[in-house]
Amino acid sequence: MGNNIYSQLQTKLLRTGTVLVLIVLGGTAGYWFIGARHYSLVDCLYMTVITITTVGYGEVIDMSGNPDGRLFTIFIAISGISTATYIFTNLTAFMVEGELNKAFRRKKMEKMIKKMKGHYIVCGLDGVGNYIVDELTDTRRPCVMVDRDKVEIEKVLEIYRDAVFIEGDATDSDTLHSAGIAVAAGLFAVTGDDNQNLVISLTAKQLNARVKVVASCKDLKNTEKIRKAGADAVVSPTSIGGLRMASEMVRATVVSFLDTMLRDKEKNLRIEEIAAPQKFEGQSISSLNLSQYSHVLLLALRTENTWVYNPPDSYLIRHGDTLIFMATPEERHEIEKLFRG
Predict the structure, then answer these.
(1) DSSP-derived pairing of the beta strands 164-167 and 297-302
(2) Beta-ladder partners of 143
(3) At 96, which CATH number?
(4) What are the backbone dihedrals phi and psi of residue 172, each rounded to the nearest 5 degrees, phi first?
(5) Does 87 map to a domain?
(6) Counted domains in the chain
(7) Is the Cβ–Cβ distance between 173 and 166 less than 8 Å?
(8) Geometric angle at alpha carbon 286, from 284 and 289, rounded to 5°
(9) How far apart (Å, rounded) are the C-alpha atoms in residues 321 and 300?
(10) Is there a contact between 332 and 270 (Cβ–Cβ < 8 Å)?
(11) CB of 50 within 8 A of CB of 21?
(12) Is 54 found in the same domain as 98?
């Protein structure tokens, strides 16, 4: 988006700049012939420039009694002034329009964020941040992007034009306030700098102790520091990458299955989790009637003490159990409605 605007301006300035240069060169040559070659090229160039810029200096080349020369001067003045005015007008309009657009976009984002609740904040878009935004958007979870680099934001906006963003420093409390940290469900600190991720985690927890913070960590020795700063989970992209490569070697079919599931835009299946509310205490799995959802597959249950894999229909749900299941985003919403009752 931003690159297109810059490209259009560059094209306009290049064209009009070329025209202006041609006018200056043509005016210099014209005065040289009009002056019967008695004047130097520098004098002819000077005459052309003061004519175009209308600085009001006296004529270097005498035009008295030379109607052709005066007509030529009028032509050079009108064409040169028009071209120069066009260049400056475009530059001024670009700067004013750019500032106005920036202000309008900022106001629009602030209004959209004020309407959001239970959303996710992604701090840092270079690297894993892009993939986090992809996943949240694909699974229809509202998110706000925060980055200091306008270029990184524009890259995401080229793919997701309606994405909500803030251009600012995520380590600043005011920036996180603007991103709706007080009512957010979670925050991703993934700037690519461990120190910044530590500060973002600490700041987020100070502003909202209930928000879940997941931070990335390049250097494993910083993991505990970031965790103590407030991160609920710390993930090392390098470590995950190593596990993925090993899995690609020893269990390639499993990896292929997961990749296909994540990339299938039609079904858009994901493995999700929902905590069972207290009102479902003592009810069986069969009472949920999960078979009514064509793509829902209950994989496991997480209890307070252990895991129950492939739980039978007769299993009695306990308050605090977390259901792990495969479903589409639409079916996940339906099950969430069922649990909310």
Answers:
(1) unpaired
(2) 120
(3) 1.10.287.70
(4) -90, 130
(5) yes
(6) 3
(7) no
(8) 130
(9) 10
(10) yes
(11) no
(12) yes
Instruction: Specify which residues 212 forms β-bridges with.
Output: 186
Q: At CB < 8 A and 24+ separation, what contacts does 78-82 make?
A: 79/23, 80/20, 80/23, 80/24, 80/27, 80/48, 80/51, 80/52, 81/52, 81/54
Distance, in Å, from the CA atom of 255 to the CA atom of 241, rounded to the nearest integer, reads: 13
The whole model's pTM is what? Answer: 0.61
Q: Which domain holds residue 136?
A: 116-241
pLDDT in tens, the chain (341 residues): 444 556 666 777 788 888 888 988 988 888 888 877 788 888 888 888 888 887 767 777 777 777 878 888 888 888 888 888 888 887 777 666 655 566 677 788 889 999 999 999 999 998 899 999 999 998 889 999 999 998 899 889 888 888 999 999 999 999 999 999 999 999 999 998 999 999 999 999 999 999 999 999 998 899 999 999 999 999 998 888 888 889 889 888 888 887 787 777 777 788 899 888 888 889 999 998 888 888 899 999 999 889 999 999 999 998 889 999 998 888 988 888 888 87
